[in-house]
Amino acid sequence: MNSLITTIQFFFVITAELTVLFLGISTLVALILMYIPQEKIKDWMYGKGIWGNFIGAFIGSLTPFCACSTIPMTLGFLEAGITFGAVMSFVIASPLLNPIILAMFVALMGWKTAVIYFIIVFSGAIIFGVILEKAGGSKLVKNVRIKGNGYQDVEEVPEVFLGKLRVSFWKAWGDFRSVLVYLLIGVAIGAAIYGYLPIDFVLKFAGPTNPLAVPIAAIIGIPLYIRAETAIPIGVALMQKGMSVGAVIALIIGGAGMAIPEMTMLASIFKKKLVAAIVGVIFVTAVLGGYIFNMIL
Questions:
Q1: pLDDT above 70: residue 67
Q2: Which residues, other chains included, contact 94 with Cβ-Cβ below 8 Å and sequence gap of 6+?
Q3: How far is CA 19 from CA 16, 188, 229, in A?
Q4: Among the listed residues 4, 16, 21, the one whose alpha carbon sits nearest the alpha carbon of residue 194
C-alpha cells in the first residue's frame, strides 16, 4: 500500500510540474519567435566557419521542435544553400536541446545538471557538425528538391501584444497536446520505477560502480522511441533508485537524440552512411556526456 501511494503521489506531482513548465516555456518561446522573421533565421545561418555551426546549434536549441518540423526545416536550409556543417549542428541539437528540456532538468535535477547538460550537448553539436563537414558529409545528401521554402507554414501574426500572447498560448497548447501521451507514459513509467523497482537491482546493473553502465545505457536508449520529455521523468526515478547520473544522461541523449521515426525521415534526404554517422555521433555524445557527468557530479 505504501508503494502504491508513493507511486500515485509521484505521478500527479511530476505531471503537474511538467504541465506548468511546458505551457509556460512554450508560450514564451512562441511569443519570442513571433518577433524574429524566419528569413532572419536563415540569414544568420549563412555564417562561414565555426560561427555557422554555433548559429545552427543555437537555432536547434532555441526551438522546441520534433522530427515532423525538424526535417522540413533541414530541407529548407539545404535548399537555401546553408553551410552543411551548420545544418548538421542544427540536426544534432534540435531534438536534444530546447527550453522545455532545460526547464525540466532544472525542475527535476537542479540547475547545475541543466547547465552541464546544455554545455555538453551544445558543444557536441558544434564539434560534430564541423567534423561531418570536414569528412565530406555533404556528398552524402540525396538530390532532394522541395516545394516552397521548407519552413513551417507562416500564419498571420497579430499586431498587438495581447493578440500575439493569445496565439502563442494556443500554439503551446497544441504542442502540449501532441506530446501529452509521451509525457504521461514517461511519468507513469518513472512513477512505477520509483514505487516498485528494487534498489539492489538498479545498483547491480547501472550503479556508479559499474564502469559499463554508461555505454550500456546509451545503447539501450538509441533504438527506443522516446522523447526527452518522456525520458527525463524516467531518468529521475532511476537516479533516485541508485542509477548513476552519467548512465541516466546517456539514456536520455541516446533515446531522445535519434528516435526511429526521425532516422527514417532523415534517410529520405541523407544516404545511409550519413544517417549511420549521425547515429554514431549521438552515441559518442551520450557516452562522453555520461562519463563527464559522473566525473563532475
A1: no
A2: 60, 61, 63, 65, 70
A3: 5, 14, 11
A4: 4
Q: How buried is residue 165: exposed, middle or buried, by Cβ count under 10 Å (0-12/13-18/19+)?
A: middle
Q: How much is the mean pLDDT over the chain? A: 78
Q: What confidence tens digit (pLDDT) does each residue in 160-194 have? A: 888 888 888 988 888 778 668 867 876 787 678 76
27, 165 Cβ separation under 8 angstroms:
yes
Count the neighbouring beta carbons within 10 Å of the beta carbon of residue 272.
Answer: 9
What values do phi and psi take at 247, rounded to 5? Answer: -65, -40
* Residue 112 belongs to domain spanning: 2-296
Among residues 137, 120, 128, the alpha carbon closest in space to that of 286 is found at 120
The number of folded domains in the chain is: 1
For residue 248, list its beta bridge partners: none
User: Which residue type is seen at 149?
Assistant: N
Q: Could you tell me which of 176, 178, 156 has the C-alpha nearest to residue 167?
A: 156
